[in-house]
Amino acid sequence: MEEKGKKSLLRAVIGTGAGLLNGLFGSGGGALVVPASRRFLGVNAHEAHASAIAVMLPMTAVSAVFYAVRTRPDIWQVLIVSVGGLAGGFLGAKLLPKLPPLALRRIFGVFIIAAAIKMIL
Amino acid sequence: MMEIALLLGIGLAAGAAAGLGVGGGALLIPGLTIFLGMDQRMAQGINLLYFIPTAVIAVITHIKNGKINKELVKGLIFYGLAGAGAGAFLALSVKQEALRTLFGYFLLLVGMYELFGKADNKDDALSRKEQKNTLE
Q1: In sequence order, which ranges of chain A are alpha helices (DSSP H)?
Q2: Among partner residues A60, A66, A88, which is closest to B14 by beta-carbon distance?
Q3: What ipTM was assigned to the predicted interfaces of this complex?
Q4: What is the mean pLDDT of residues B61-87?
Q5: What residues of chain A lie within 8 A of the CB of B11, using their CB?
Q6: Where are the domains of chain A?
Q7: Which of B69, B93, B132 to substitute to test the interface with A, most A CBs within 10 Å?
Q8: Which of A42, A112, B19, B94 could form a disulfide with B111 if both were Cys (CB 3.0 to 4.6 A apart)?
Q9: Contacts of residue B86 in chain A, CB cutoff 8 Å?
Q10: pTM confidence score
């Protein structure tokens, strides 16, 4: 019984945290749900990835409505970015398995840190 | 014309990065604000919209393959939706310059994790396989 209570509390914390993060920054919820469900809820990697997307989809839709009402994004800009994204997804799936994963992560890390510094300053 | 090329290129990079397990948003949002001078809130909103079509396809595939842990989804979703509303409300209530700076610190953490984090090859392989399953 106590174990069950602990699990529901953990779910509440992970769910709220992921929603807040994703709503506040427009991204990042999945980056919390996947490792947290694996480490604290004992879900395996496969299920954690698949379930995270299923949780993130309705959460993203809710946050997106708030943002869309307030910021009125240009539908064409959204479409063009999305077309690029789909193409990138295909390209990544074909190309990435041929490249060393750790080196790629490090390179992305450098780019992301540079972008972060630019945004903070 | 330049704007279209930039939008396509940023989307492309973010879509490819998503397969690495690096969230696409970590590239898309700074790309839109830095190269297109977009408002921070606008860029975050576009990232949310951009995620939806891909996620719909992924979820349908995962449901078909029976990969979704229903108990986990049910346990998280209610709190997640409440958080999602509150988080968006918060983001839209603060000054966009403050949001941009705050996002920058968040991004810094993500970048450090990618740069110095431990290698998890099993995970990389897994997420790639899933990405492939989703797309093919």
Answers
A1: 2-25, 29-41, 45-71, 75-95, 101-120
A2: A88
A3: 0.91
A4: 94
A5: 80-85, 87-88
A6: 3-120
A7: B69
A8: A112
A9: 19-20, 23
A10: 0.89
